[in-house]
Amino acid sequence: MPDPFLEARAFLAGLDPDWARHIEAVGPCLHQAKPTREPCEALVRAIAYQQLHARAGDAILGRFLGLYGQTFPSPGQILATDFEALRACGFSAGKIATIRGIAEATLSGVVPDYQAARAMDDEALIERLTRLRGIGRWTVEMLLIYSLERLDILPADDFGVREGYRRLKGLEQQPTRKQMIEIGLSLRPHRTVAAWYLWRVPAL
After folding, report:
1. Distance, CA of 19 to CA of 141 (rounded, Å)
2. pLDDT of 12-40, one tens digit each?
3. Which of 75, 155, 169, 183 is the most buried (most CB within 10 A)?
4. What is the mean pLDDT of the chain?
5. 18 catalytic residue (yes or no)
6. Could you give the number of structural domains in the chain?
7. Whether this model's pTM surpasses 0.85
């Protein structure tokens, strides 16, 4: 089976010896998008994991899906769900307000459906969705990477991306968001694959 990220790997490995060693150590990029997910679902999932370790996010999301027989609920079902039931899943009051806001915005058309979102420019979608309460740039970038299969996204606010770069380069401090954006310019047009590899630096 051909490697869909072969070109991106070769590009990144050619940047400098640090990247080359890291990519050799990790091996092929196993990034997997979930293009069947509607933006509403992708945003709610991203909110569930926001500022949490993956295991905690998995547990909260599992309890949330359990309310609906393990299938992802419609916006109407989310709005009809009792606050205390959502609270019992492990969501904070702020996250519940955000999730309900996403559901309402989906019903009103502010959150586009999958086909409409695919047709939108990255920055236009980010600008539109970050107007919603509790939706920051990182959340929309996760939607772009995992649901819309965009291959040139570097989440500059992401702790794992910045920490991965710090360790990759042996820096004393993480680069700032602004510095990470600047660094990302040299990673174009393969910033999504670069992020995938940076997320795996601390694990080695």
Report:
1. 23
2. 999 999 999 999 999 999 999 888 889 99
3. 155
4. 94
5. no
6. 2
7. yes
